Amino acid sequence: MEHSAVEITKDENGIPQVILRSPRGASARVSLHGGQVRSWKNERNEELLFTSNKSKLKPPAAVRGGIPTCFPQFGNRGTLEQHGFARNRMWAVDENPPPFQSVDSNSTTFIDLLLTSSDDDLKIWPHSYELRLRVILSVDGHLSLISRVRNFNCKPFSFAFAHHTYFAVSDISEVRVEGLETLDYLDNLCNRERFTEQGDALTFESEVDRVYLSSSDAVAIFDHEKKRTFVIRKEGLPDIVVWNPWDKKSRAIVDFGDDEYKHMLCVDAAAIEKPITLKPGEEWTGRVELSVTASIQ
Ligand SMILES: O=P(O)(O)OC[C@H]1O[C@@H](O)[C@H](O)[C@@H](O)[C@@H]1O
């Protein structure tokens, strides 16, 4: 850990959080509540992630915004609470993580977090695991998340995983997503029925809640009004979730403002359709890199 660029402090509710700073002025803030990236700012100090003004910021409620980690379940596809328990737990700073393969630690600032099976969680999900999350801020302000899950059980287990990423956008009706063309998707608004994407790019004029299957390793979000583009690059996370609740659903979500849907779009790198299975002792790694550039549109 490069201590000069990493500050461990407490948030407004006394919860430990870690602030990462790049030499050029970008920053990220990671809360131990949920192991969740709560803020990601560019060199001009502009916030790139959405957080609802109505979000409950105190545990055990999940924070409505940033990048919650969905593990070991996505949505209600299982018997656990919605999106699994990881986003509601207190994580620890991992002082001594096992070595990573091919990570350039010279040009980056990072923090390692750890979540392990508690006695209470073993009652609802009887599998011993370690979930490690490395949050990396590069010199040029790119944000990368490397997640590793290891099976410490004597029998296999399976899980789903998602980086539930709330991107801040200027106006959802001026946004388009590229990289999902021709893919099959499961539509959560139609009982997870399978459809094939027909359009050139995805644009938004009503509620969307889809899991795109086996997407390419790069997906882009063009924000026309802000003239900027987010690029999501990923490995080990085949699916992409796209979610915007639009007006009616927004009014039904207690920790979300009625009009806030206009300023957010969730695009999550995920492994959902085919859960990941680990044999005893095995480890899985998923990576996602988020970058933002000025766009020519
Ligand atoms: O309200 P939650 O539990 O944070 O979930 C928000 C949304 O998260 C999305 O990822 C799901 O696809 C939606 O179905 C869900 O409504």
UniProtKB/TrEMBL annotation:
Keywords (alphabetical) are:
Isomerase
Output one GO BP term: carbohydrate metabolic process
Task: Give the highest taxon in the source lineage.
Answer: Eukaryota
The record ties this protein, via Gene3D superfamilies, to: 2.70.98.10
List, in alphabetical order, the Gene Ontology terms for molecular function in this entry: carbohydrate binding; glucose-6-phosphate 1-epimerase activity
Taxonomy of origin reads: Eukaryota, Viridiplantae, Streptophyta, Embryophyta, Tracheophyta
Among PANTHER family, the record links this protein to: APOSPORY-ASSOCIATED PROTEIN C-RELATED (PTHR11122), GLUCOSE-6-PHOSPHATE 1-EPIMERASE (PTHR11122:SF31)
Instruction: Kindly provide the name given to this protein in its UniProt entry.
Output: glucose-6-phosphate 1-epimerase
Q: Which Pfam families match?
A: Aldose_epim (PF01263)
Organism per entry: Erythranthe guttata (Yellow monkey flower)
- Which InterPro entries does this one have? Aldose_1/G6P_1-epimerase (IPR008183), G6P_1-epimerase (IPR025532), Gal_mutarotase_sf_dom (IPR011013), GH-type_carb-bd (IPR014718)
EC id: 5.1.3.15
Q: What class of enzyme is it?
A: isomerase
Q: Which family does it belong to?
A: Belongs to the glucose-6-phosphate 1-epimerase family.
Q: Which residues bind substrate?
A: 64, 82, 87
Q: Signal as a keyword?
A: no
Q: Which reaction does it catalyse?
A: alpha-D-glucose 6-phosphate = beta-D-glucose 6-phosphate
GO cellular component assignments: cytoplasm
